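[scheduler] slot 2 assigned
[scheduler] job type: sequence-to-structure, two independent chains
[scheduler] chain ordering preserved from manifest
[runner] begin chain α
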Amino acid sequence: MNPSELPPDGSPIVEPLKRTLHPAARAVLVVFLLYMFLIGVRLLESGVKGLGSETAGGLFDGITNPLAALFVGILGTVLVQSSSVTTATIVGLVAAGQLPIQLAVPMIMGANIGTSVTNTIVSLAHARRDEEFRLAFSAATMHDFFNLIAVTIILPLELTTHFLQRTAAWLAELLPGGSDATFNSPIKGAVEWGATRIIDLVEPLFDSATTAGIAFIIVGIAIIFLTLIYITKNMKVLIAARIERSVNAALAKSGLVGIAVGVLMTVAVQSSSITTSILVPIVASGMLLVRNAYPITLGANIGTTVTALIAALATGSIDGMTIALVHLLFNVVGILIVYPWGRIRYVPVMLAEKLADIAVKRKWIAVAYSGIVFIAIPIVGILVLS
């Protein structure tokens, strides 16, 4: 290096100056990328729903076994890609007298498990970068493990005592009658608007709903992959270490803060899948620790019950309100059983991290896990128990 090129203090130049985006512009870019990411998730959901809507519609017929009902809740939610749709459908069937509450309760629990498939799929977008994938897959599957543990503990208790159903029925009697209550999320509406524009462009190019569904899945996955790459890169630059520490310190200090954030986010977007899917790239970027994202996913479980409660209010049916309240009580009781106790609080996180460590070395395990837990086991369970 030429002496004339050295700085005044004589020290060598370690790195050349780089032209970077202004922080405000980068923040706007991140918001836009998050919006496109949500559109990608919506297109993926639309494609899967298009392929599986007829199958999902027939799943509720002829079920008499509570365990089969649990598997129906899982598979039905995977097929329509929305626990809100599944639970609102269950509420409607119960209100119409077409589905016994005793079978609707395990279906609701199954919907809680099935809804976490979306963020597990989203985490696969990080598979090419091992450390990001380890964090992303941990963030996604801790939701799975919590729901599985909650169902394993609560379902046998419910089948023997009916404590959720009885408590919900008592609360339903205290609430006022029917209502025309509705809630339209502006965020969900904006995502729906963007996704509809793409659907309107793509759908006429295909002759059947099946091929259009496949196209939406491909386009959705492509958008998810591209946006996740740039969201992660920009967030690493945009979020200073001090802010990262402050956010993590606040969430670590009180899990109630994280739960409240999860509830509010999910009520705002009316989808626990969106809330938990957004967490995946945030954790992968290193901005949020896996353990600190954990209570937010628990809050998302509570927030997603709002849709079923609104649907129940609209039916004006005591039975419909009862099953909606069962959904709320199940999620609250699950949190009370697991989260307050230090020795078992982070069991879902530890299981998720162990699975992620294995999946980083053998990527096929991550894909196999999703297929077995969310599709193969429910199908076999329904066929055997129905």
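[runner] end chain α
[runner] begin chain β
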Amino acid sequence: MRLACLAVALSLFAALAAAFEIEDHRFYPGTGPQVLKIISTADLEVFEPYLLAFQAQRPELSIDYTVASSAALYGAIRNGAPFDLALSSAMDLQFRLANDGFALPHASDRTDALPDWARWRDLIFAFTAEPAVVVLSADRFAGLDVPATRQELISLLRAYPDRFQGAVGTYDIRDSGLGYLFATQEARSTDAFWRLSEVMGRLAPRLYCCSGQMIDDVAAGRLALAYNVLGSYAVERMARASGGRVKIVQMQDFSNVILRTALVPRQAENTGAAGAMIDKLADLGLRDGPGTWPLPPLRPSADDAGGGFGPIRLGPALMVFLDPLNRRDFLGEWENAMVQR
């Protein structure tokens, strides 16, 4: 039976790989015939403990886990790709899927226990609250003061252009759904966003799709700093391999805090298993502290509270910058600032 499930999973994987870009994939065989098919933006390095914990409770269930970018995930669900559960860090894209009728409802005691700001209409459920941070190379910042605010970062980049030329990394928001969310929310919350973007743009910044790649390049010394990466990824990579070469800074003037969310796609076949996984994630999201889990809980830590913790809210306001005209205008301004010739 395991071989049969594996064969089905491999054929599905081949078909999906042809339909959209897949970053990673792993199949976890269970003892029974059922398969839970998950598409997620979370790297296996950080999410595998959650999969194994869930499968320990449901050993009969096989798990087919596909990693894709937030934009690819959004497109796959809208185009009817056969997944039972979608997990994404791009809250705006998840909300649009639910608002447009691409999600099925789920309700339980565990989801009812979530704060109102962490769920929407029994369709979207948050299970982490993750701040955006700046990741610095300790070697490249030797002799420099570590900036604590965006204005301090702007002043530092202006004062040392030679040191930071070609050594600043951030998201390419034209391709990264999470990067676009961070940028639009920051632009709404602080005037410093556009000034910082223009300063970065003069330094020939390197643009990325994903947090992990930026953090790896900081650790390797190819970047002096990476701006607006997921703090959870930075902490996980520091624990594994940074050797003290990486520092994490949460800006004190304002912090974007995203909610990583789950929804059951309209085309899901194994809705029971998908709901059970959501309940497991909700339970972990409600824990009192981070513990040994790679991703942080929903409740803010003392450090988060000191840094102006306030998660981006689930609601219709998330779709303002998904309007085609608003998106075109925002990307135009961003390109003028960041992609300077």
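[runner] end chain β
[qc] chain β: Residues 2-19 form the longest helix (18 residues).
[scheduler] slot 2 released
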